[in-house]
Amino acid sequence: MHFLATVSSIAVLLATPAWAQTGNPAGMTPGTPQTAPGVPAPHQPNQPDRLFVREAAIGGMAEVELGKLAAQKGRSDAVKEFARRMVEDHTKANDRLLGLAKQDGIVPPDELDREHRAMRAEFEKASGDEFDRAYVQGQVQEHQKTAQLLEWEIGSGQDAELKSFASETLPVVLQHLRMARNVEAQVTGKVP
Amino acid sequence: MSGFLRGIPPVAGAILCSLAALAGPLPPDATYRPLPTLPLEAVKANDEAEKPQVMQRQADLLAQRYDLSDRPIPGVMMSGGRKPVQGGVRVKLPPGVTWESLAAMSPDEIRERGLLPAGLMPLPHVKQATGGQVFPNQEIDEVRRQEGRDLRRFDVDFDLPDRFTPEFPPPIFLTSHPELGDVSRGQLLTIKNYYELMVGIITPVQMEGLRLLLTPFPQEEFNQTEDRKSADQSLGVTCLDCHANFHTNAAFHQTPDVRPQAARFRLDTVSLRGLFNQQIHGSKRSLRSVEDFTQFEQRTAYFNGDHVSATRKGANLPDRTNQVAMMAQMQNIIDFPPAPKLDPLGHLDPSQATEQELAGEKVFVGKGRCGECHIPQTAFMDNNMHDLKLERFYEIGHTVNDLVMLPDGAIKTFTLRGVKDSPPYLHDGRLLTLADTVEFFSLVLRLKLTQPEKDSLVAYLLAL
User: C-alpha B246: how far from its chain's center?
Assistant: First the structure.
């Protein structure tokens, strides 16, 4: 019920992305093809769109890789269940993001950045409760950053489909963040 | 510390700390205002072409959320007698529910079924992605007439119908001269007329403060650079362009305290009446003096809390011990409008008030719990900030007209003295009438007020 209600409200609320407006003073690059004055033609990403794709692709890739690791190495059921959900949700989101990037002619990174490589290396060394805590605390931070990144794209991006992607992904990421905080509370005793 | 927590080894924390140094930061323009990428000529042409669509989108949102019809409360005018007070609940309900049926549901059920009326949710800026100050047409026209200064934007217009904004120009009442009543002479105070209107009434120090409050200074959308929204180079805006006659004209902008842009909620201009009793200032900033407020608004209301942008466009840094003090002293003599039915401690005088108003006061301090924060004796404030946690009632993170619906967090308690004069209500102006406000709080505080209780509360609020 909850899930269905959420999905239907997303459908209603997101009926407007075609109306999305670029208002950021740095929103448009000179020479951008337009379908009407001020309305960029489809698949014309601006600089924030390009940076967003890079950051979101790396973050999404890390979610899947680290989630697979946690589904194997996690000690608590809560961590393993959360990790499986991350793999599932972020695999879908990554596929969609890569499709949009391709349409826009943006080449997304194909490997993790230094931050996430280091995270993976640390997690590979850890085990048991220590792994659970490190993974879930990392997940809280990752989802905090991703929520802000998506909000930034909604306000600063130009490509309507990428902005729609950000709008539709944000409620899910905030839901993940709530879940991660709850799991963190379970494994560390921290206030959720 | 519990035994459980003591037993947790600090290893996990160490791993994350070492990773933090490697963490890629979020993009800088998620915090700072970026520099424009197009010449003003191109920006202006694009914005002007888009403007009808921008205004239509906002009009559609307002029509979807509210009943905007003209339904004044018979016989009830704002304090200056220039504008009727609109009545009735204007927030539209989702199909199949009533306020009573909503009151019977838990916050979880309302959230899971998506039943919170949209009009109770955050109200987007007319153009969220751009944001900035937007003035109502009456203010724009009068400032242009008196000063020849143009407050019109080429990208957006004001969005709410006039009937839901304060009377214009609002009356001015002074604590230093209660016997005079309204000293505005029906005029909007500007740099042109202030001296003539106020000489012989206020002190030299107050006069100089008033001059500064009416002097335009560069602002994010009104300045001389290419990054502006006025057609011509602008001298800027004044404090009283929004706080018209020290009250409010419902001009709005966005909170300077939140980033990124899509998360910045709308802010409806607050009245400065009764500022002398207010101990915290700024809806989220909790500035502890009117002097701080006066000084810092040059970086916040004027420049969205971006001192870097302010420096580029022309920051005004009023001298604290001299200019700021005088500006504060002028603001501190602005009184509330008279409320003849209230006794000196803020309670209704039974010999003056109606039965319904007295019943409303009982609800206000009793079942309605309004008086727990809006304490009558301290000008209906508690000088605190509170978080109503409206997000219990809706799923966060959805985007409406480019505004992301997120928890508002703690916001300061506003005074209710003279509240009939200052629609729209709540910090972002999402509630158009006092009846809407009563429904909002009845739901959010789980009060289950009856219709007679709600009606009596509205009658009481009109007497404040």
Answer: 14
